[in-house]
Amino acid sequence: MPAHIAGTLHATPAPVWLPYPEDVNALLPSLWSRNVVKNADGVLTVAGHPVTDIARDHGTPTLVMDVDDFKARAREYRDAYAHAFSPEQGRSGADVFYAGKAFLCTAVARWVHEAGLGLDTCSLGEMMIARAAGVPGEMVGLHGNNKSVAELDYALDYGVGRIIVDSLDEIDRLETIAAARGVVAPVMLRVTVGVEAHTHDFIATAHEDQKFGLSLSSGMAAKAAEAVVGSAHLRFDGLHSHIGSQIFDISGFQVAAARVLDLRAQIMRTHGVDLPEVDLGGGFGIRYTSQDTPIPVEEMAAELAEVVAKECRGLGTDVPRISIEPGRAIVSPAVFTLYEVGTVKEVHTDTGIRTYVAVDGGMSDNIRTALYDADYSCSLANRNSNAEPAIIRVVGKHCESGDIIVRDEYMGADVAPGDLVAVPGTGAYCRPLANNYNHVPRPGVLAVSADGAEWIVTPESYAQMLSTDPGMTTSTET
Ligand SMILES: *Cc1c(COP(=O)(O)O)cnc(C)c1O
């Protein structure tokens, strides 16, 4: 074989950030929840349950939640913020609201509440889950850029503790509904402060060219404040800012906090009111691959407490009670998705051979890679491999070439049909964004602890999936 061809075939299509593994069977612990380990035989186990048993008893694909890990992360957030913003340090306390949109079901709502966190919702459906789980209304927030009359009415009936108002239209709508009910609605204003943060970067002068929030620079936020102050049926509790998602850079939060606190001081001065609360949003980044470097929870809390105290000193105001809204950072690391391999193909690319490993799910259970170019890692989960590591790409079963779950990873080259593959970090924005593309039913979420395993979301049956088609008259029992 001519040297240049041999060279081509031995080249690797691995991206530069992906290191060649010393031991392809080893787990990188920081990517996995804390009760996940690999046994000596290479079988991944979660809280003592081998995934081979999980696959046999519960099927694949399945999202597997390490429940104790989830609860521990919720408590860590609560404790870190309670500590950093504690009144003993001259601060006014802090609350953590779990962002339910990341992943919500009644079990999760209950665990979040038991851990002492509030719960953010952004639709009627999410509020119904919170209510059914027994979360008291005052612990619930309602977001959304286009809340319906039904949603606002439900929120007031439920006694939601904060409605984060997103537009001038919504102020009118909420006032009318509150007046009709003879109640006073608790309101925070969502302000866009011109900061847009992503991963390692932020833009301090972002165009406020987006559907969310009331813009600071155009004066819309000030106008909304005036409207809320002037209403007998709205109680003005504070301001809210959310600057992005999967953020590793603290400075975006610092700039946003400074701007929102400045606006708070202006509003309090202009209208002679007190605004007791400021919410700094969510977006705290997590580790999907070895290249991600999240800021430890305590460090982030301490830095935010510092900047809030400093800004308030400079403005000559009191320090408001702070809240934050992590979703991904609490739920994503606690979950992995378990798939079974169906077909394996070696494909020759310009830079070498890439092995396509096709599994029994795909963009219907994890659309983030296709939608946002998200990166994931994965591991062979049912055995050790003695083969050379190969560069693999995990793809789904859908009729779309963008149906990719893990773009680049090393795995033993002998990966074969019947093997199990586990993808960590799938707790957030996977099951909530699941869909029925190609009429594939959505997978369940299995909560696993030392005590056992139970569905907290059951796998969708064919009968359930097809029930919206009036023409489906043949049996759909499976
Ligand atoms: C999406 C969202 C969150 C949660 O974001 P994460 O990245 O999951 O932490 C919090 N607050 C608001 C307003 C959001 O839209």
List keywords for this structure.
single chain, 478 residues, alpha/beta, Lyase, Ornithine Decarboxylase, Chain A, domain 1, TIM Barrel, 2 domains, nine-stranded mixed sheet, eight-stranded parallel barrel, 24 strands, globular, binds pyridoxal-5'-phosphate
Computed Rg: 24 Å
Low-confidence blocks of residues: 1-9
Q: Strand-residue fraction?
A: 25-35%
Please, what is the CATH homologous superfamily of the largest domain?
Answer: Alanine racemase
CATH class of the largest domain: Alpha Beta
Write down the CATH topology of the largest domain: TIM Barrel
N-to-C span: 52 Å
Principal-axes geometry comes out as: globular
- How much helical structure, as a percent, in the residues? 25-40%
Please work out how many helical segments DSSP would assign.
13
Structural class: alpha/beta
Mean pLDDT: 95
> Which CATH architecture of the largest domain is right?
Alpha-Beta Barrel
Largest sheet: 9 strands, mixed
What binds here, in terms of ligands, is: pyridoxal-5'-phosphate
Topology, number of strands: 24
Number of domains: 2
Describe the 3D structure.
- Strand 5 (94-99), helix 4 (106-114) and strand 6 form a beta-alpha-beta unit.
- Strands 4, 17, 18, 19, 20, 21, 22, 23 and 24 form a nine-stranded mixed β-sheet that branches.
- With 478 residues, this protein is α/β, with parallel strands linked by helices.
- The protein folds into two domains: 29-66 and 333-459, Lyase, Ornithine Decarboxylase, Chain A, domain 1, CATH 2.40.37; 92-325, Alanine racemase (TIM Barrel, Alpha-Beta Barrel).
- It has helices at residues 3-10, 51-58, 67-84, 106-114, 124-132, 149-158, 168-181, 220-229, 250-271, 297-315, 328-331, 368-372, 462-466; strands spanning 36-38, 44-46, 49-50, 62-66, 94-99, 118-121, 140-142, 162-165, 185-192, 196-199, 201-203, 214-215, 234-240, 244-247, 277-279, 321-324, 335-349, 352-359, 379-380, 389-395, 404-412, 420-424, 445-449, 452-457.
- The radius of gyration is 24 Å and the shape is globular.
- It binds pyridoxal-5'-phosphate (PLP).
- The modification N6-(pyridoxal phosphate)lysine is found at residue 101.
- One of its GO terms (molecular function) is diaminopimelate decarboxylase activity.
